[in-house]
Amino acid sequence: GARKRQRYVEKDGKCNVQHGNVRETYRYLTDIFTTLVDLKWRFSLLVFILAYAVTWLFFGLIWWFIAYCRGDLDHLEDHAWTPCVNNLNGFVSAFLFSIETETTIGYGHRVITDKCPEGIVLLLLQAILGSMVNAFMVGCMFVKISQPNKRAETLVFSSHAVVSLRDDRLCLMFRVGDLRDSHIVEASIRAKLIKSKQTQEGEFIPLDQTDLSVGFETGDDRLFLVS
């Protein structure tokens, strides 16, 4: 039998095209925001978790290193000693202090003292970097959640298109319906004919695109989907 031709665009709007042998993959990193938004949900959530966990661990290590270099860990029982951070007695407490600082949940019995200028500088840096991480990651999640990709799941098209007479003219006809109760008002429709073409000069164009007239001039391309 005849080989079934694959669709160029699926009925849910996804392009049935796979990019292979992409060499300059570093270009995806130049627009890291869009790259993260385009990732699948499981990878986006992984990056979201790692972004916070890595910064907490990184600054927790620095807080512990400051306490170690100042000798605070050697004077835990010396009440006359003024440490950089009160009640910081190891890496775990330094990690918890890092979380408290970056998430601004409020300090408990671990609090920075005014006798530690390097700690004050680090506190400012972590507060600024934490705000940047929050803005970046929350922005990525918001854009990803607000994308209307899943809305297309409730827009259904007829299984077949037909060419038939209407008002003594041959017309290409297909049906589209909206399954949701919240209807799309002023929906705009476009139709393209994609086929292979060979020019008069002998050039072969595998995916030649032609816009079909669906009422751009008269405004008939704007639909009110009620069924």
UniProtKB/TrEMBL annotation:
Main location: membrane
UniProt entry keywords in alphabetical sequence: Ion channel, Ion transport, Membrane, Potassium, Potassium transport, Transmembrane, Transmembrane helix, Transport, Voltage-gated channel
Listed Pfam families: IRK, IRK_C
GO process annotations (BP): potassium ion import across plasma membrane; regulation of monoatomic ion transmembrane transport
Location within or outside the cell: Membrane
Boundaries of every Inward rectifier potassium channel C-terminal domain copy: 155-227
Domain spans labelled Potassium channel inwardly rectifying transmembrane: 9-148
Gene Ontology molecular function terms on file: inward rectifier potassium channel activity
Topology in the lipid bilayer: Multi-pass membrane protein
Ranges that cross the membrane: 43-66, 120-143
An annotated GO cellular component: monoatomic ion channel complex
Cross-referenced Gene3D superfamilies: 1.10.287.70, G protein-activated inward rectifier potassium channel 1
Domain of life: Eukaryota
Catalytic activities: K(+)(in) = K(+)(out)
Recorded family membership: Belongs to the inward rectifier-type potassium channel (TC 1.A.2.1) family.
Protein name as it appears in the record: KCNJ9 protein
Organism: Pandion haliaetus (Osprey)
